[in-house]
Amino acid sequence: xxxxxxxxxxxxxxxxxxxxxxxxxxxxxxxxxxxxxxxxxxxxxxxxxxxxxxxxxxxxxxxxxxxxxxxxxxxxxxxxxxxxxxxxxxxxxxxxxxxxxxxxxxxxxxxxxxxxxxxxxxxxxxxxxxxxxxxxxxxxxxxxxxxxxxxxxxxxxxxxxxxxxxxxxxxxxxxxxxxxxxxxxxxxxxxxxxxxxxxxxxxxxxxxxxxxxxxxxxxxxxxxxxxxxxxxxxxxxxxxxxxxxxxxxxxxxxxxxxxxxxxxxxxxxxxxxxxxxxxxxxxxxxxxxxxxxxxxxxxxxxxxxxxxxxxxxx
Amino acid sequence: xxxxxxxxxxxxxxxxxxxxxxxxxxxxxxxxxxxxxxxxxxxxxxxxxxxxxxxxxxxxxxxxxxxxxxxxxxxxxxxxxxxxxxxxxxxxxxxxxxxxxxxxxxxxxxxxxxxxxxxxxxxxxxxxxxxxxxxxxxxxxxxxxxxxxxxxxxxxxxxxxxxxxxxxxxxxxxxxxxxxxxxxxxxxxxxxxxxxxxxxxxxxxxxxxxxxxxxxxxxxxxxxxxxxxxxxxxxxxxxxxxxxxxxxxxxxxxxxxxxxxxxxxxxxxxxxxxxxxxxxxxxxxxxxxxxxxxxxxxxxxxxxxxxxxxxxxxxxxxxxxxxxxxxxxxxxxxxxxxxxxxxxxxxxxxxxxxxxxxxxxxxxxxxxxxxxxxxxxxxxxxxxxxxxxxxxxxxxxxxxxxxxxxxxxxxxxxxxxxxxxxxxxxxxxxxxxxxxxxxxxxxxxxxxxxxxxxxxxxxxxxxxxxxxxxxxxxxxxxxxxxxxxxxxxxxxxxxxxxxxxxxxxxxxxxxxxxxxxxxxxxxxxxxxxxxxxxxxxxxxxxxxxxxxxxxxxxxxxxxxxxxxxxxxxxxxxxxxxxxxxxxxxxxxxxxxxxxxxxxxxxxxxxxxxxxxxxxxxxxxxxxxxxxxxxxxxxxxxxxxxxxxxxxxxx
Lengths: 314, 650
Ligand code: SF4
Ligand code: SF4
Hints:
The structure holds two protein chains of two kinds. By secondary structure, chain A is an all-alpha fold.
């Protein structure tokens, strides 16, 4: 098992390097940090702009391979470069990473658990009213883009605030719990919708499985047999979906952070793109790639933990 | 008091009746055999007694366990009874255990389901139960997961769970159907042990008359959702009254005695039963009342005109031909490995014009791999395959295409082998068109083919969906015949069919061979079927041929200890014979195709080996036996791969 994890980890690092390099090159080609100076008045002399851009390793007149080389050398030393204001990117990354992870983690865990539970219930009550309601609700959420969902929730929260004359829900500042509620709810809702769909179909597959019948023949109540045998088996494929789904989740989180003024990685990315901040964008990609790969590894570990058949064949 | 009493049990799925008024009683310690073909309602009856039918089934009647009514009980009430007083063993050991829980935990769960024990006590009881059902090294086995167990071992686990609470009644639904025959013999022994240990009444649901003959005190025969015959095992087997029972017994292939006699047609679909006796369309003895009134079950049989069994026709009319000199297929030294797994490990045989060779053996013996290698018409990993005088490894494309016409296949599962969206006419025309036969000729040939396999020409316009299993297999055979091949390869051609239909397909194959002179290479696991289908038989074990020869020689004087064990493991549908005979019980499971051990690969399970002297055993361990003529009479067509087979033949 340890060997397997090690092999996976090494392979992952290679993948991260490739992915992040490609992302850097793309960002460096597509973004124009020079444009930031254009609107300034008085416009600084060309020479000063060049010097400043070169200092930040953002000068589009430096050949791309050279800029890439500087960036990589920095990266190897643990230096992610500087943002447009000249502050180290690493510092900003460190500040924002936990802010985002908190949101993502709660979203994933709550979304996963609720989604699995809801999907399983839905399958057990197939075609009854509760199943139809859950199905309808999840399709509605799935059909609405995350940022629309976020805005809708925000409007609803505003109404509640106005009606009660309080500030139960907030989306400005960094006031902890009450600020966390809306973005988390948005993420969780979207996650629950996805996971419950997956889990419902997985669960339907095993509802009439022979081993569930065996469990009931032993004298287990229907509910117990379904929980311990059907759900326990049907939850295994969810680990794989979890890994696939993370990319989508990340994308959603970017919009959600921006909309709710959550000062995390997503908001940073959008702001950085606006400013042509190549180094910051590259840092975000590093974060995203790392996250996706860690998720893949976790998914594999979880699958091995849940499924003895996978464990032995390795 | 009876352990279980079922009265006027009826089950409907929507508008379709599956069980139509079944009643019986089982006394403590008694074994009641419930026999029937697929769709007869026997398994549904079992599940209805357990209360485990899906919610869309409507169940009426009464099910009394030791006098207490179960039908209509809530899940809470029934779950107190299930597993404690009323246990069930299911058919498919592949899927009946939860793949993600340890064997020991699953048994312990059964122990704990009815309260009163601690976790560790339950685990210890699980180990005892594993011991009882003969799982070796229980402590280790309990920590294993189902996928690490063979089918036979899993079925033992099922039995262990069933007997955990000394139930009053055990329902066994086809408990050995999915198992190899030597393993079936073991599991039946375990079932007998379990019965003795618990004193439970057993309801034995099966299609296999042999299994019932060995085990059951009384027998019920079901047809179209009703009991059509009941009696003691002796009565039902020796003095059947109902024409269906008589037909079923006559259709069962035997290891000795005459050929099986088919029952015409197939069982009626349960949605569209005829108004009178459901067996009427297939019954030779039908009279006017049979068409209008369904007979009710009297003393023994549900029939207006009870009959007596006819003696079986004697062995075929002496059509055992002399072997042709024309070799159609020659296989020499064939080997096939998948990675480290040696599936076929040096196999030689030939098939001559107009004859049938059957490859038999248990799962993992390499018979199917051998077949696939031949069908590939490509260079094998090692060895030579010569079809119609041409070595397939050196064939140009064009010639290979030509050769494909002469080599056709019939699959086991006719439902899976036919494209459901194509009409029968197109299914039969497909190979013809692919080989460029002109259109008017195609049409004529399709009609001719339908005639050959005994189907009306109007089948041409129908789809496979509307056909019964037997009819579909006939289409499969017609399709194989389309290009007038010289050799047809048949993979378990009748094993998916009901006994009453099997015999008809076997008849058809024999007739076609006689008229068309086509040769068959058959892969099958059922030795009784093979005896009536084949001229020659090759018994395979772990990638090699253990014994090969004419059917008369191999079945009459089996030379290899493995052949003997196989033959002795098959349950015969004759209660006195079945109970009277002693079995060679092989230990262990048929090994998977792994790297073969040095020396004789059958050694670990060989009953003869254990009786040998030390020096002789040495030889078995050191030297792999080669095929050599068996000692029985010079000139007999029989070879055996065993050093000491003479010790067996007398
Ligand atoms: S009732 Fe009539 S049709 Fe039915 S089995 Fe008896 S004789 Fe045949
Ligand atoms: S060679 Fe020895 S071990 Fe092999 S079958 Fe014969 S007696 Fe048994």
